[in-house]
Amino acid sequence: xxxxxxxxxxxxxxxxxxxxxxxxxxxxxxxxxxxxxxxxxxxxxxxxxxxxxxxxxxxxxxxxxxxxxxxxxxxxxxxxxxxxxxxxxxxxxxxxxxxxxxxxxxxxxxxxxxxxxxxxxxxxxxxxxxxxxxxxxxxxxxxxxxxxxxxxxxxxxxxxxxxxxxxxxxxxxxxxxxxxxxxxxxxxxxxxxxxxxxxxxxxxxxxxxxxxxxxxxxxxxxxxxxxxxxxxxxxxxxxxxxxxxxxxxxxxxxxxxxxxxxxxxxxxxxxxxxxxxxxxxxxxxxxxxxxxxxxxxxxxxxxxxxxxxxxxxxxxxxxxxxxxxxxxxxxxxxxxxxxxxxxxxxxxxxxxxxxxxxxxxxxxxxxxxxxxxxxxxxxxxxxxxxxxxxxxxxxxxxxxxxxxxxxxxxxxxxxxxxxxxxxxxxxxxxxxxxxxxxxxxxxxxxxxxxxxxxxxxxxxxxxxxxxxxxxxxxx
Length: 475
Hints:
Number of strands: 2
Helix content: over 70%
Shape: globular
Number of helices: 19
Radius of gyration: 22 Å
Order of helices and strands: HHHEEHHHHHHHHHHHHHHHH
Strand order of the largest sheet: 1-2
Number of domains: 1
Strand content: under 5%
Oligomer: single chain
Structural class: mainly alpha
Largest sheet: 2 strands, antiparallel
């Protein structure tokens, strides 16, 4: 491995070294505060080292990884989300008398797996990153073992995640049988001999299985049934991690794989993506209408948002591909910012030693009159998810609309408009509740300075990118 390749893997190397030092630190001194500060410092350093990876941009890093502008932008999103989760976890876990060093170790392992997925262009590295991410998340989802719903959510995620990984691995095996290569580049028809090209049925069957495996991780309908239960049962910071880091990493794998796979697919098989997108948009938004639990509502909302993102996969030319990558990157950033704001508030008002989190949005009645700063942050986050102007979510949806019009995907465009209209309704319901009169005797828990500052910073970022979207462009 040469110096350029080492530079390209700098963030992953730093996180890996930090994980080793975490285990040594645990052996020497068990302290929640020390391990949290060490984790936070390591993630900040890994984020800063993204700058030194620039010389390795658009270079193959060994046979397993490829670093491009899209991967760099996604890595920035993932590491920023991991930093936020680390910060809010401190207050959330503080009420417990246990030492939570293993929590931060699992958090770092899941972050490492996610960052590996973002730069992978080889099935071996994809599976390695996926298992690192998934196994760590199983432990995190069931971390608060005294909660009945938490253990149920962890067991459900373990069984279904293992099933999806098996399907994904079988699909990879079929693609290997077709191309004789584990690299995404090996899927291109011009790299294969005629004998292998004639076995295209293997490639198409393998692609369907891979899409099913990835579809589970992204909660695409009808593979979404685990999502609301796991979102609700997991501790609030872990749900934040699931909703951001896990989704972003898996969508990166999907978009890279699809742009190679579409070269050998029949037009009929491309309809799979259209079907998944259409179903996810409508099912996610319609089921969200019935929810009073904010974590379940955001679970169904995430299903719809992943359906919106599938629009960028239906490209028809090389120019469209560049637009698709930039659109996906910006939309992921806007989605994560809004999600982080909402879960930061949930973490600030919840405690790890209770039976459940404070996740009933109907209890937010009068929030604006009790805490204007927190309520304003939530309002902007919800408006961003709805795609209202002046927020980053509006620019993200505008990019998706542009991609749909450019590629003449009129049915998907109509689904996006209808789904966004339904979404606006249930987001506005929450906003209206916050402006209602305060219920007698109900007050919010004492808010921390760190949480308030974090909400303010995330909200400013959401509005800044909504007004100046060119600040987040990697192409």
